[in-house]
Design a protein that fits this description.
Elements: E1 3-8, H1 16-23, E2 29-32, E3 41-45, E4 48-52, E5 65-68, E6 73-74, H2 76-88, E7 97-100, E8 104-105, H3 108-120, H4 133-142, H5 155-176, H6 185-199, E9 203-204, H7 206-215, E10 220-223, H8 249-254, E11 263-269, E12 272-274, H9 287-295, E13 308-310, E14 312-313, H10 314-324, E15 328-332, E16 342-351, E17 354-356, H11 363-368, E18 370-377, H12 394-407, E19 411-415, E20 423-425
Parallel strand pairs: 1-10, 1-11, 2-5, 2-10, 5-7, 6-8, 7-9, 11-15, 14-16, 15-19
Antiparallel strand pairs: 3-4, 12-13, 16-17, 16-18, 19-20
The chain binds guanosine-5'-diphosphate, 6-O-phosphoryl inosine monophosphate and magnesium ion.
Residues 8, 11-13, 38-41, 126-129, 131, 133-134, 225-227, 230, 241-242, 275-276 line the site of 6-O-phosphoryl inosine monophosphate.
Length: 426
C-alpha cells in the first residue's frame, strides 16, 4: 500500500496536474480535499489536452476512483458540466466519481457576495477567481447559512433553510449594491434539486470509503489544489485562498490522518508565478518576465488572466516545503528557461537592511523584501527532448541541483514539457 500526496509549494499552477496524472498510473484512488472550481489543472497526453477544475485530475486514468472529499466546496452545476465535457470526449468518468456528503455547496449568492466584497477592497482586492469559493467557506465557518451536499437530499429541511438563507442574503446584497436584483429562493431550490438528483448516485460518505480503502491496502493519492503560499493559515494572508491548500489540508479535508501519508511530493516551477493580488518579491516587470510568460504560456486556466512571473524564490518555496512536509520535490517547466543567458534564484531577502531567510509572516514585511539573487549561467539549449538526468546540459543540472540544495530536499522529478513523456524521474 502507498499513500502519496502532491502539493504545490508556491502560489499555485506549479503543474501539479501533470505529476498527479503520472502517478495515477500506480494509484487506484485519487482524492481532492480542498478548494473547488477555482483550481485549473492541465494535463497533456496522446496528443490531447484536458483541463480539470473541480474534478480530480486522476479521473482521466481509466479505472481510477476519483473522490471529492469533505473539505472541498462543490458547485454542482460546474461539476456536472465538467463531467459532461469529459464524457463528450469519450472519458467515462461519472461512474468513477464519489462526492462526500459532508462537502459544502456553492450557491449563486456566493458569487454575488464575492463580487461585492472584492469591489469594496478597491486596489487591494484579492483578485479571486470569482467562483464563490471564499464565501462558501465563510458560510461553512459561520455555520448558520451553510448547506452541505448531504443536506440536498433532506428535501423539506433544505427547502425551508434555503428560503431563510436567500431572504438574508437578499437583504445584505440589496444594502450593499443598489443595482442588485433580489434572488428567487424557489428558482434556486428547483435548480439545486434537479442537480442533486443527477448527482445522487455519486454521493456517499467518502470518509468511510477511504478508511476501508486504507484497511484494504489500496494505493491512494491526494491531489492538492492551489499552493502552500495560498494556504489560509500559513500563506500570504489575506492574499490567499480560503482553504488549507498546503499539506496541512489533507487531514482535515479528507478525514485521513496525516500519519497515513507515506510520501509527500512538493511541486515547484523552475521559476515563480502568481495570479491575483499580493506580494511577490521576485516578480519581473521586464522583458525576461514577459519572455517567461510567453514561453511558459502563463495565462490562468480558470480566468485567462496573465500570470505574474518572476525568478525562483527559494525563501518562499522552502517555507512551502516545510509547512507541507515535502519529502521530495518535483521541478517543473525547466524548459521555459532554455533560452536565457543567465538564470537567477532568490536565496534570501533583505528586509530593513537585514538578510532574512525565514519567510515573513506579515504581508507588509514581505512587501518590503528585496530579493538577494544567486546568478547562474543559462544552458542555451533545448531541453524538451531530455528523458533522463544525463540528457540535461550541465548548467541545467546545476540549476536544478541549486534549487534542491536551497530547499534542502531531493529532486525526484524534473519536467521539460507538458507531455507525460517529458519527465525525468531521478
Ligand atoms: P496546476 O494547477 O498546478 O496543475 O498547473 P496548471 O495546469 O495550471 O499550469 C501548468 C501548465 O504548464 C499547464 O498548462 C501544463 O500543461 C504545463 N506544463 C506542465 N509541465 C510543463 C513543463 O515541464 N514544461 C512546459 N513548458 N509546460 C508544462
Ligand atoms: P491551481 O489548483 C493559482 C488564487 C486567485 C487569488 C486567490 C484567491 O490551478 O494551482 P479564490 O478564488 O481561491 O478565492 O482566489 O487564489 N488562486 C489560484 N492561483 N492557481 C490556483 O489553483 C488558484 N486558485 C486560486 O488567483 O489570487
Ligand atoms: Mg492551475
Amino acid at each position: 500500500m502507498t499513500v502519496t500526496s502532491v502539493v504545490g509549494l508556491q502560489w499555485g499552477d506549479e503543474a501539479k496536474g501533470k505529476i498527479v496524472d503520472i502517478l495515477t498510473d500506480t494509484h487506484q484512488i485519487v482524492v481532492r480535499y480542498q478548494g473547488g472550481n477555482n483550481a485549473g489543472h492541465t494535463v497533456k497526453f496522446d496528443g490531447e489536452t484536458y483541463k480539470l477544475s473541480l474534478l480530480p485530475t486522476g479521473i482521466l486514468r481509466p479505472g481510477v476512483t476519483a473522490i471529492i472529499g469533505p473539505g472541498v466546496v462543490v458547485n454542482p452545476a460546474a461539476l456536472l458540466g465538467e463531467l459532461k465535457s469529459l464524457e463528450d470526449r469519450g472519458v467515462k468518468a461519472a461512474n468513477r466519481l464519489l462526492v462526500s456528503d459532508r462537502a459544502h455547496v456553492i450557491f449563486p449568492y456566493h458569487m454575488l457576495e464575492e463580487a461585492v466584497l472584492e469591489k469594496s477592497r478597491g486596489d487591494s482586492k484579492i483578485g479571486t477567481t470569482g467562483r464563490g469559493i471564499g464565501m462558501c467557506y465563510r458560510d461553512k465557518a459561520g455555520r448558520g447559512h451553510a448547506i452541505r451536499v448531504g443536506d440536498l437530499y433532506h428535501r423539506d429541511t433544505f427547502a425551508g433553510r434555503l428560503k431563510d438563507i436567500v431572504a438574508f442574503k437578499n437583504t445584505i446584497l440589496a444594502a450593499l449594491d443598489p443595482a442588485f436584483q433580489p434572488l428567487d429562493a424557489q428558482t434556486i431550490l428547483d435548480e439545486y434539486i434537479g442537480l442533486a438528483d443527477r448527482l445522487k448516485s455519486n454521493v456517499i460518505d467518502t470518509t468511510a470509503y477511504l478508511h476501508k480503502a486504507l484497511k484494504e491496502g489500496r494505493n491512494i493519492l491526494f491531489e492538492g489544489a492551489q499552493g502552500s503560499l495560498l494556504d489560509l493559515d500559513h500563506g500570504t494572508f489575506p492574499y490567499v485562498t480560503s482553504s488549507n491548500s498546503s499539506g496541512a489540508g489533507i487531514h482535515n479535508g479528507s478525514g485521513v490522518p496525516a500519519r497515513s501519508i507515506d510520501r509527500m511530493i512538493g511541486v515547484v516551477k523552475a521559476y515563480t508565478t502568481r495570479v491575483g493580488g499580493g506580494p511577490f518579491p521576485t516578480e519581473l516587470h521586464d522583458a525576461t518576465g514577459e519572455h517567461i510568460r510567453q514561453v511558459g504560456r502563463e495565462f490562468g486556466t480558470v480566468t485567462g488572466r496573465p500570470r505574474r512571473c518572476g525568478w525562483f524564490d527559494a525563501v518562499a518555496s522552502s517555507y512551502g516545503g516545510r509547512i507541507s512536509g515535502a519529502d521530495v520535490i518535483s521541478v517543473m517547466l525547466l524548459d521555459v528557461l532554455d533560452d536565457l543567458d543567465e538564470v537567477c534564484v532568490c536565496e534570501a531577502y533583505e528586509i530593513d537592511g537585514q538578510r532574512v531567510t525565514d519567510f515573513p509572516s506579515h504581508v507588509e514585511e514581505l512587501q518590503k523584501a528585496k530579493p538577494i539573487f544567486r546568478k547562474l549561467p543559462g544552458w542555451k539549449q533545448n531541453t524538451t527532448g531530455a528523458r533522463k538526468w544525463s540528457d540535461l546540459p550541465p548548467n541545467a543540472q546545476r540549476y536544478v541541483e541549486t534549487i534542491g540544495e536551497l530547499m534542502d530536499r531531493p529532486v525526484a522529478y524534473v519536467s521539460v514539457g507538458p507531455d507525460r513523456e517529458q519527465t525525468i524521474v531521478r
